[in-house]
């Protein structure tokens, strides 16, 4: 049996960063908390990044997730948006890594595949499957939170595979020991 | 007379982040410290970003600069490099903004213009003028440190202009008071 793992999924955005803390073992999962953290466009960009980093830090200290999961982007409308997205993602990664929380990143297609079984699923289908997998009767609001939950579920979906690999490795170790 | 201002210039890079702390008033400037902080490619990216953020934070706490100056990039070889550069810059901005240090950003041409008087100056000329302006007998090493000093000097070069504007504003205030 896989132990329960607590994962913080984050969907980073300068204006609104979605978050969702999920407990699961890759088979069943439940929401611990979810929401979106907003920053004001009246604040300087560096200040907004610091607010996001401090918020994620506080969330980690309150809920003690073992891991943080993020979407890894490889595309952006243009180079300038890519700079901006990288900045916000980094604010979240710094908050996690300074607290010893491991960071996992997933391509958008990997999130869709993990949550719906189909790597090119439309956003609506991903959001519907998030509700189904987490037993939610309502659409998580705002939608940034739903996207963050999808990312957390993507990490949790890897656990049974990791467990199987670890078992194989243990069998392998045993075999090597027998030969020695 | 302009008060001395202490500025931390940073040239962010995932492998090596150049830094230089400079005291100046926009007319004369002296180096407080300079160098480059390196991270190991063996560490996870999130870990490296956290190390950079923590290093910049420690530098701020030790030398107490009032401001941090960074190069603002608008171009990158490709979208993927833009994400990476944004991530490292954010790690430095978060370190500054969480400690109440104001962040200033300059386009590469503005740095060249401020340091050499010519916005399309070659890198070598910028590095030479950094030595001249700071009274250094040797090229700062590594070159990332020299680039960080150039960025700090760019911020300091604005001070006489800011001071002149502030004086104008005070004269204007007086005139308005006379009319009342």
Describe the structure.
Two copies of one chain form a homodimer. Chain A has 180 residues and is α/β, with parallel strands linked by helices. Chain A has one domain: Ribonuclease H-like superfamily/Ribonuclease H (Nucleotidyltransferase, domain 5, 2-Layer Sandwich). Chain A has helices at 45-63, 79-97, 108-116, 123-134, 143-157, 159-179, and strands spanning 5-11, 16-24, 29-38, 67-71, 102-106. Chain A has a five-stranded mixed beta sheet with strand order 3-2-1-4-5. In chain A, strand 1 and strand 2 form a beta hairpin. In chain A, helix 3 packs across helix 5 and helix 4 (123-134) packs across helix 5 (143-157). The longest helix of chain A has 21 residues, at 159-179. Chain A is globular and about 55 Å long. The first copy, chain A, starts with a strand and ends with a helix. In chain A, 44% of the residues are buried.
Write the layout of secondary structure elements.
The structure is a homodimer of 180-residue chains.
Chain A: E1 5-11, E2 16-24, E3 29-38, H1 45-63, E4 67-71, H2 79-97, E5 102-106, H3 108-116, H4 123-134, H5 143-157, H6 159-179
Parallel strand pairs in A: 1-4, 4-5
Antiparallel strand pairs in A: 1-2, 2-3
Helix pairs in contact in A: 1-2, 3-5, 4-5
Brief summary:
2 copies of one chain form a homodimer. The two termini of chain A are 30 Å apart.
């Amino acid at each position: 049996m896989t132990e329960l793992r607590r994962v913080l999924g984050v969907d980073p955005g300068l204006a609104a960063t979605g978050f969702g803390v999920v407990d699961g073992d890759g088979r069943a999962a439940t929401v611990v908390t979810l929401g979106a953290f907003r920053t004001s466009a009246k604040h300087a960009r560096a200040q907004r990044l610091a607010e996001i980093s401090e918020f994620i830090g506080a969330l980690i200290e309150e809920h003690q997730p073992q891991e943080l999961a993020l979407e890894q982007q490889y595309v952006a409308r243009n180079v300038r948006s890519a700079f901006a997205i990288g900045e916000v993602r980094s604010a979240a990664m710094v908050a996690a890594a300074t607290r010893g929380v491991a960071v996992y990143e997933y391509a958008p297609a990997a999130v869709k595949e993990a949550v719906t079984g189909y790597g090119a699923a439309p956003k609506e289908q991903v959001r519907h499957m998030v509700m189904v997998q987490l037993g939610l009767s309502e659409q998580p609001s705002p939608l940034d939170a739903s996207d963050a939950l999808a990312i957390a579920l993507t990490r949790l979906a890897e656990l049974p595979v990791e467990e199987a690999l670890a078992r194989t490795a243990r069998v392998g170790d045993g075999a090597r020991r027998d030969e020695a």
